[in-house]
Amino acid sequence: MGLSQVIIEPLKRRLHLYQIIILDFISAYLAWMAFYFLRKKILGEVFDGYPWYVYINAFLISVFWVIWYWFFGFYVEVYRKSRIKEIFLLLTTTFLGSVILFFILMLDDQVQSDYKNYYKLFALYYLLQYGLTVVIKIFLISHIRRLVKRKKIFFNTLIIGSGSRALNLYREIENSFDILGFKFLAYLHAGDTASEALSQHVRCLGGLENLEKVVRRLRIEQLVIALEENELHLIPDVLNRMEKYRATRISIIPDIHKYLIGSIRVNHNFDLPLMDIDQELMPVWQSHLKRLSDIIVSLIVLTTMFPFFIIIAIIIKLTSKGPILFKQERIGKDGKPFKIIKFRSMYVDAEANGPTLSKEGDKRITKFGRFMRKTRIDEFPQFYNVLVGEMSLVGPRPERQYYIDQIVKIAPHYKHLHKVRPGITSLGQVKFGYAQNVEEMVERLKYDILYIENMSFAMDLRIILYTIITMIQGRGK
């Protein structure tokens, strides 16, 4: 298989995703049109065709369902869906969506004479929407399974390991292609040399030092870790290297998963000789809710507080020379740099002699800058960073590469912070505050790691509440 085919095949599969979205739209459209017709029958009304507004309502409702199913992750990893899981997940999500539509659109005066009609209409619409959607979903999942079995769909796969485990696992998975769809493109040896036995079946592209390069070049979608007992210490290094490649699924042999318990979630796949390492830190719906709340809150703050920002800008200009805003490169999610924006709280050229962290009684901070820092007013322009997706309301504070290089020497696990968007506020900032040196940065790191391991929308709300209290009390630094 040429490299061009390896690259083109995953791109072609996007068409299947679009087909799924279109079919969800059509099923929702048909469900609403059928419901309108049957609703007339239940209420004893005469059906004399579909008025123009019914078509518009059906279109808007279909858009709602596509967004609703996206929100709950139905369009994520569409090629690895379980029919049973899909059936039960649709039961609950469709019920919730139907309840929302029922209270928005169906509670009217026409059925107040008999409240039993409310229950009949709700049950009717729910069954229509769920029934049409689930039938299409099961058909599509079954169709995809057939495509996998015929090797029309496959997942570019890389093995980590070159011992007997890697060889045995390769043979076992090759015999289960119709279940897994793994297409082995290469393997990387963990020891000093390649495996002659494994090289007879799949090519070797060097050692672990080539991992990122191989994943990028071959568009690897599946990474299989099959290390020997004496090589298990390399697993954290492999996972650290793969943090920026979130689209690549990582699996391990079941009997070594104990090595990971306590640090990462492991999902078992029935019928498969592997266990998947779950790299998602939050459920899909919570992740979408977090981003949606970031956008809404940022828009509200930037629009409603604009007059206040003008006043702050005037005071900054009157009390010290220099620009109103301060911009500095920080490292964000997946290690990507971005420009963080703040109200300037220091005198110009405060770091003329090189990067220096702020300390208690720092003379580089202006008088008004000290007030802004205590009340966190200087952080408000960062809502723009949140709006464009560079930051989040809550997340580990972003640092400069200069300090990251020093932190990683002491605490290599700092790289875990790059799994998520950095935040305007964080658990580390709430519990520890601003760090005055690298040692304090490492000390604060434990709170940020704790946040990442327990990420949830509820925790974000708690951190935001603590931050507001800190602002009101003026306990910032």
Verbal overview:
With 477 residues, this protein is α/β, with parallel strands linked by helices. The protein folds into three domains: 3-149, no CATH class; 155-278, Rossmann fold (3-Layer(aba) Sandwich); 284-473, no CATH class. It is built from 18 helices and eleven strands. The chain has helices at residues 3-12, 14-42, 52-71, 83-106, 116-149, 164-174, 177-180, 196-199, 211-217, 235-241, 284-304, 306-319, 367-375, 382-387, 401-410, 427-431, 438-453, 457-473, and strands at 155-160, 182-189, 204-207, 222-225, 249-252, 265-268, 275-278, 325-331, 337-343, 392-394, 423-425. The chain has a seven-stranded mixed β-sheet with strand order 3-2-1-4-5-7-6, sandwiched between helices. It has a two-stranded antiparallel ribbon with strand order 8-9. Strand 2, helix 8 (196-199) and strand 3 (204-207) form a beta-alpha-beta unit. The longest helix is centred in the N-terminal third of the chain and has 34 residues, at 116-149. The termini are far apart. The relative contact order is 0.06.
